[in-house]
Amino acid sequence: MKIVMLGAPGAGKGTQALNIAKEYGIPHISTGDIFRANIKNQTELGMKAKEYMDKGALVPDEVTIGMLLSRIEEDDCKNGFVLDGFPRTIPQADSLKKALSDKNTKIDFAVDIEVPDEDIINRMSGRRACTKCGGTYHIVFNPPKQEGICDNCGSELVQRADDKPETVLERLKTYHELTQPLIDFYKQENVLVEVDGTKKPSEVLEDILGALK
Ligand code: ADP
Ligand code: AMP
Q1: What is the residue with the minimal CA distance to atom 22 of ligand 1?
Q2: At 117, which helix (H) or strand (E)?
Q3: Which of 18, 74, 113, 196 lies deepest, with the highest CB count within 10 Å?
Q4: Strand-pair category, 192-196 with 109-114
């Protein structure tokens, strides 16, 4: 199963991608997590990505596309994957389509999680993230069992540097301009699934899994 997650920053892509990945036994691949791991390890790629991420802009396609295409070549992707945060531009979606079609395969579902902009700022200010396994929580809407600790791997939870309101507004602008057009792209591919992301996380998951059956 090859799945792409769509939706505004904070719509719940990461939260649901982890659940879907568990359900199907496929890897959850977040380009944002890959960039953050590179920043933490102070790699050249990380230093370059940070410049853009801090501003709420997208990391250039020249950097992002190659990185993602080589990730999905790895062994654990043989039975599919859930992409979270990629593609974010039409050229990224075109490159992914071409790389998959060269192997006679394609994206099975693009899941668009719909949440109005008004709800996004609240979600982001309370978001806490695990830097080790990519687990995502919210201090009110989806709290971890023990405050500040990841349920999944026991590591410390942190607030993301780009979750401050000014950057979130910039990220929303970037989303509407460059990423939202992908909804039409995948509609034309006949693989689009749209779900109401304002429901509780467990209900959103139920709606997604129901639609993928
Ligand atoms: P994205 O990956 O799309 O940026 P996340 O999955 O990180 O979004 O979710 C953003 C924030 O909203 C997190 O704090 C998460 O715990 C919370 N969240 C996710 N799904 C829901 C939901 N259905 N209702 C309320 N809060 C949610
Ligand atoms: P995310 O963790 O998905 O919210 O991504 C955090 C940040 O990483 C984004 O605001 C972008 O700056 C960068 N990023 C992640 N994925 C991509 C992508 N596919 N293309 C360009 N930039 C990306």
Answers
A1: 201
A2: helix 117-125
A3: 113
A4: parallel
